[in-house]
# Entry
Amino acid sequence: MPVSLHYQLQALGINISPQFVAKEIAFIDELLRWNKKINLTAITDRNEVLEKHLLDSLVLNKFIKEGFRLLDLGSGGGFPGLALAIANPEIRVVSVESVGKKVNFQKHVKRLLGIDNFEPIGNRIENLLMRGDFKSEFDIITARAFASLEVIVEMSEPFLSTHGKIIAMKGPEGDAELAALGTEKLKNYRDISIESYKLPLSGSNRRLIVLQK
# Structure
């Protein structure tokens, strides 16, 4: 494990067994290999990818419980959904991404690393909604660099289980997005919170907006 990655995991309080950390690193290395020919991420420095994609995804690990079903909206190269599936083989993760090359990459990593609890779907979430797929099925719905908080809440609600959580991953703009929603659009949620943290190397400010149904 790179020293910087070990430090960052500790700094963010993320506990993952070494065997899963090794798989995460293999995932990142494969992402960077593919990225030389197919644009999967604008970040090309390995250390930056480890911090700003992988570590930023694994912050959600504390919300995971055995047997959970997680839906990741607009997962891109697999963040946070694929990273969480690798770290938590006891959960089921469904990743929805509309860009074909990114879905193909996720499918490749699933095969390469044997991530059996991970299901990448090449589609738009709106289409799954119209078809009635996965209705009220998920304990956690995540979205990172996907859309405004208002859109995330609107898209997520039909897929959320009775006591499920929406976790929107945002920067500092998340505070204003939550305030702008108003009480009417949040009436179905009994617990609403914002968790702030900084990435340990870059110092980038992040927000987790957590809506508990």
Notes: Residues 18-35 form the longest helix (18 residues). The chain has one domain: 3-212.
